[in-house]
Amino acid sequence: MPKAFVFDLDGVITDTAEFHYRAWKRLADEEGIPFTREDNEQLRGVSRRQSLLLLLKGRVLPDDQMEALMARKNDYYRAYLSEITPRDLLPGVGAFLREARACGFKLGLASASKNARDVIVKLGIADLMDAIGDGYSVSNPKPAPDLFIWVAGRLDVPPAQTVVFEDAEAGIEAALAGGMYAVGLGPPSRVGKAHLVLPNLDGVTVSAVLNALPEKP
Ligand code: BG6
Ligand code: MG
Is 135 in the pocket of ligand 1 (CB under 6 A)? Predict the structure, then answer.
């Protein structure tokens, strides 16, 4: 019987991808680097440094210049964060978190973002989380299972009793590699390896998820 639910942030709880896009786009425009919404798709779930490397398309810069560009992008991104309110929770997320909490499940966040804590405070759900794993918690990014294992450890729940909610292929791979249940939110072409695939959390109940999972992850 699962005891904990662990959530990715971007694309699961809220859509920060648009803000990341606008921030990278502003930096790219200022630096004269071509960058489209299509290019941005490759940056989903990818760390800040790796995103910059993709943006630079193989161009190598000294580390101090890399740091300065990342800091500028982050300043732009953080300016957008001030616009986030509880209305930016994706449909069904607030209800699912509250129901899970009322049923006694432990709840955790597992995001690659160093800004994850600030985002969930703005969304008004920080108090519902028993553990927050973010871009500072581990060094190996998804698809390595490290961040999910770290959060499950903080929740004091074994991986086999932890259910991960993810919208990215690398996130599903990470959950499975960690021996956890995986619920994929999005198209089967992206999250089809999960134990359960749903379009999103709109109208989804805790019992519907539990009943659809196999006996063991
Ligand atoms: C992920 C986002 O959650 O966090 C990526 O999907 C982002 O787009 C990454 O690059 C790191 O975020 P931050 O806020 O630490 O730059
Ligand atoms: Mg995501």
Answer: yes
The closest residue, in CA terms, to atom 14 on ligand 1 is: 113
User: What pLDDT was estimated at residue 17?
Assistant: 87
CB 65 within 8 A of CB 189: no
Q: Which domains does the chain have, with CATH numbers?
A: 4-15+87-212 (3.40.50.1000), 17-81 (1.10.150.240)
The DSSP code for 14 is: B
Whether 10 is catalytic is yes
Helix count and strand count (H, E) for the chain: 10, 6
Q: Is 112 in the pocket of ligand 1 (CB under 6 A)?
A: yes
Contact 54, 73 (CB under 8 A): no
Buried (b) or exposed (e) across 128-151, using 16+ Cβ within 10 A?
A: ebbbbbbbebbeebbbbbbbbbbb
Spatial separation of the C-alpha atoms in residues 186 and 54, rounded to whole Å: 24
Any idea what DSSP says for residue 90? P
Contact 128, 98 (CB under 8 A): yes
Assessment of whether the complete model's pTM goes beyond 0.90: yes
Q: Record the tokens describing residue 45, joined without a space.
A: 């779930």
CA–CA dist 65, 193 (Å, integer): 39
Please write the tens of the pLDDT for every residue from 170-181.
999 999 999 999
